[in-house]
Amino acid sequence: MGEVLFLSGVALGGVVVGLVVGQWWALLAAFLVPVAYIPAGEDSDGMPHWEIALYVFTPPALLGLVVGVGTRRALARSSSARS
């Protein structure tokens, strides 16, 4: 249950960042998540923490960013169409 809540938080953080930035280049921010794990070293089975973060945290962060940026751009397009 805790993992689902944490991954939901990662996705929600992506939505917030996407809404604030509103540009498609913000999708690259999802790939900064594994970079933060590089100094963490390796797990007990020898797999680097950054690699685990790449597989586990990057997809929900990327999904959240896509939703946030898409929403921001759709809102901007609809408000400019009204003017």
Describe the 3D structure.
With 83 residues, the protein is mostly helical. Helix 1 packs parallel to helix 4. The longest helix has 25 residues. The mean pLDDT is 88.
Poorly predicted runs of 5 or more residues = none
What's the total count of β strands? 0
- List the helices and strands in order: HHHH
Number of helices: 4
Residues in β-strands, percent: under 5%
Morphology call: elongated
Q: Termini separation (Å)?
A: 46 Å
Largest sheet: none
Which helices and strands occur, and which strands form pairs?
Elements: H1 2-21, H2 33-36, H3 49-56, H4 58-82
Helix pairs in contact: 1-4
Question: In brief, what are we looking at here?
Answer:
It contains four helices and no strands. By secondary structure, the protein is mainly α. It is elongated and about 60 Å long.
Features:
83 residues; 4 helices; 69% helix; mainly alpha; single chain; elongated
